[in-house]
Sequence to fold (332 residues):
Amino acid sequence: MQLNTLCPVLHNQSSSRFTRSATILLVAAFALLHSPAQTPEDVGSAGVFNGDRNELKGVRVATKREGDLIRVLVENRELCEITMTFDVQTENLKRSQKLPFTATFPPGETNLAFELSPTDVNAKWSYSFTNYYKLGSNVAVHDETTVYQLPYLPGDRFIVTQGFNGTYSHQGSNQYAIDWEMPEDTLVCAARGGVVVKAKDDSSQGGASIEFDRYNNYVLIRHDDGTLAQYCHLKKDSLVVTAGQRVATGEVIARSGSTGFSTGPHLHFCVFKTKDGRMRQSIPVRFRTSIEAAVFLRESECYRAADIQTVHVSAKPPAQGRQTQAQGGVGN
Fold:
């Protein structure tokens, strides 16, 4: 992990230390510093969406003095929620929140994160803090009645090369991700409607090494329940949607490719929410196929997309998914 450190200043001056998965903004005595950082989970995510590591530009943290009160504010100019975690060290300061502190901040707003104030105003005081954030909400509740469409055109059929708990890379934050082996230039469709909050298609590079991860092209869609869906490894210059656009279920969003950390042409798909500023949690979702109304996809099986028709059912997902074994072929 890359940390950015500002040495503490004592007695009636403030200092802060930040690190986050994207642009870093440090505010200390109203001075601004910034540099990139990344989190361990991002590095270990096997080539999937790292948009909150490199592409978040609209998140700023600032400290504001009001007499002896120090207010820490978060400005979120992204198109959806962010979840941020603060680790704080203090001397002779009271805290308004139990720390470490995690909160979700809505888009388009500046909100108070926490406050600090001297315990003894006549004694020296100091503080420093490190913060981490990810795109998404940790209070989102997935609508378990929603059935997703297969993310390709009606009538198309593709094999699942890596499913839930896939041994190649579907562990941890990607536990419930799905990979379909898919020829490059295949039309990719929205599996569920929502708002495009991040999109990238400027890369033509891909390869079987984590070093290629930064070249991943993707679309990230926020659903109405606050969860996010990612579509990864897309072809260069293939996006037909833009950030801020609302898309419908089944709408074409891009073309498949093999950019980023990818061993061959395929589509990686995952629905998730954030847990805190460091980690996210993938969510098992059901799909409608040409022969099944609502099914958890199975690794090594081929699925044909049905006509677009949103289906709602009442059923709970498996508690921890189904353990599967890698079957070779194209992985994530």
The chain has two domains: 26-135, 146-305.
